[in-house]
Known about the structure:
The structure is a homodimer.
Chain A: E1 2-9, H1 16-27, E2 33-46, H2 51-66, E3 72-78
Amino acid sequence: MKARVHVMLKSGVLDPQGEAIRHALGSLGFGGVDGVRQGKVIELDLAETDADAARARVGEMCEKLLANTVIESYSVEIA
Amino acid sequence: MKARVHVMLKSGVLDPQGEAIRHALGSLGFGGVDGVRQGKVIELDLAETDADAARARVGEMCEKLLANTVIESYSVEIA
């Protein structure tokens, strides 16, 4: 079973990497970009076969390792 | 209009960051994780209002800046 986790900085948190991308896009002539946020995506290949159990397990992984929940939010998709 | 870009290492390319996460998950007692790949997600806020035009534009951005197409693949979602 595959799981995909998105980890993004929370909306109030400054995102210098996203700002750098926005600036670079402007320099390359890509106008009309009002905002950029960069985050991480983590794809996990799990032995677990039950979707609900996998979701709960991945949620735990996020809380303990994958995301810093003080400044980051995460979402889990199970496929 | 919002666009979300996923940039992942191509499947043949070694992903040390993913391997580090897999190892760390194992150390924390999360068994049953057969593979981990880590990539980037970039959320763009675009002034463009036409979905097809936005998709084409973001594709160009990926080719020129957001992805290194030698080793990375990208996918674009428009929302």
